[in-house]
Amino acid sequence: MAMKRNRVDTTEELTASFATKQQQQKQPTEDQTRVKAKESDPPKLGHFLDNCHNCKKHMPVGVKVHMYRDFCGFCSVGCREIQMALDNLAEKQAKLAQKQLPSCSD
Prior knowledge:
Blueprint: H1 11-26, H2 30-40, E1 66-68, E2 72-74, H3 77-100
Antiparallel strand pairs: 1-2
């Protein structure tokens, strides 16, 4: 059975291929370029800051956001106060409903 003989690279060919591999490693890939572009963008915390929770007005990045509770961003103090009043009203209605329910103690 005849064996296939492997080609032996010369030193010039080895150094040339090594230099090519080093250049390819130095060039950033598309993914690395995207990551760098994303790092330069302002941080994005979540979609809940895109629009006002009350009036649904778009809030661009860099605009002052008025927060209330966990994930509610508002464009103004007025919008935030409306939501706070609605929440207080809902709490009062829930307490009133609890009082009106007959007790189940037999």
